[in-house]
Amino acid sequence: MPMNSNLLTAFIAITSAAVVLQMLILFGIYLEVRRATSQAHGIALDFQRRTTPLIENARDILADATPKVKEITSNLTEASVTLKKQAATLGDTAVEMALRAKNKVAAADDMVTRTLERVEKTTGAVQNSVLLPVRRVNGILQGISVGIGAFLNQKREVREERKRSPNDEGMFV
Questions:
Q1: Residue 169 resides in a domain
Q2: Is residue 29 a part of any domain in this protein?
Q3: DSSP letter at 97?
Q4: In angstroms, rounded to a whole number, what is the distance separating the alpha carbons of residues 25 and 16?
Q5: How far apart are CA 43 and CA 32, in angstroms?
Q6: Does the CA dihedral 45-46-51-52 come out positive or negative?
Q7: How far is CA 53 from the centre of its chain?
Q8: Which DSSP category does 4 fall into?
C-alpha cells in the first residue's frame, strides 16, 4: 500500500514539531536546573562561609578543652582513689577505736568488779573484827546489866520484906 506523500510529509512535520517542542521543553528544564544549581551553590557557599568560623571555633575549643578534660578526669580518678583509701583507713580506725573502747570498758568493768569484791571483803572483815567484838562486849554488858539489875532487885525485895510486918502477911488472901 502506497502511502500518500502528503500524509508522510504531514507526519514528518508533526514529528519534527514534536521533537522541536521536546527540545524546547528540555532546554527549559536545563535552564531551570542550571538556575537551581547556581542558587543551591550560592546557598552552599553562604552556609560554608557562615559555618567555617563556627567549626574553627569548635575545633579551637575542643583542642583547648581536651587537655583540661584529661587533667580533670585524671584528678577525679586520683581523688576517687584517695577517698577510697581514706574511707578504708577511717573504717579501720573506727573499728580499732571501737575495739579499744570495748577493751577499756571491759577493763573498767573488771576494776569496778574487783573494787566491789574488795569492799565486800573489807565490810566482812570490818564486821568480823569490829562488830563481832562490839557484839560480844554488848552481850557481856547486857549480861552484867541484867545481873546487876537482878542483884539490885533482890536487895529491894529483901528490904521490902523487912519492912513488912508479920501481921501484914495474914491480911493477904
A1: no
A2: yes
A3: H
A4: 14
A5: 16
A6: positive
A7: 51
A8: P
Based on C-alpha coordinates, what's the Rg of the chain? Answer: 68
pTM score, whole prediction: 0.37
Domain membership flag for residue 78: yes
The pLDDT confidence band at residue 164, using thresholds 50, 70 and 90, is low
- In angstroms, the Cα distances linking 162 to 118, 150, 167 are 64, 18, 12
Number of domains in the chain: 1
137 is in which domain, residue-wise?
A: 10-160
- Write down the residue that cell numbers 554488848 correspond to: 138
- What tens digit of pLDDT does each residue of 93-122 get? 888 888 888 888 888 888 889 988 888 888
Q: What does the DSSP assignment read for 37-65?
A: HHHHHHHHHHHHHHHHHHHHHHHHHHHHH
Tell whether 5 is covered by a domain.
no
